Amino acid sequence: MTTLEIKGDWNITKGKLKQKWAKLTDNDLRYTEGKQEELVGRIQKLTGETREVVENAIKESCSTGGCK
């Protein structure tokens, strides 16, 4: 997963991820450029999902949310 896949309108993407996994908080979804691996790992740990599922959810949220 690249930075460009996560960048864009992060607030929309965050909202979509919180809808999918209600237990995620804003703190859990803090995105810092260059730390996308940490973000995916954090979501994995909290949701129990596989890396592939988490990455696909982020990509899907970005594609419907307008990430560039």
Structural commentary:
- With 68 residues, the chain is mainly α.
- It has a domain at 35-68.
- The protein contains four helices and no strands.
- The chain has helices at 3-6, 10-20, 36-47, 51-65.
- Helix 2 (10-20) packs across helix 4.
- The longest helix has 15 residues, at 51-65.
- The mean pLDDT is 81.
Topology:
Blueprint: H1 3-6, H2 10-20, H3 36-47, H4 51-65
Helix pairs in contact: 2-4
Cα radius of gyration in angstroms: 10 Å
Structural class: mainly alpha
Order of helices and strands: HHHH
Number of strands: 0
Share of residues in strands: under 5%
Alpha carbon gap, first and last residue: 14 Å
Average of pLDDT: 81
Q: Approximately how much helix is present in the residues?
A: 55-70%
What is the 3D shape?
Answer: globular
What's the story with the biggest beta sheet? none
Low-confidence stretches: none
Number of helices: 4
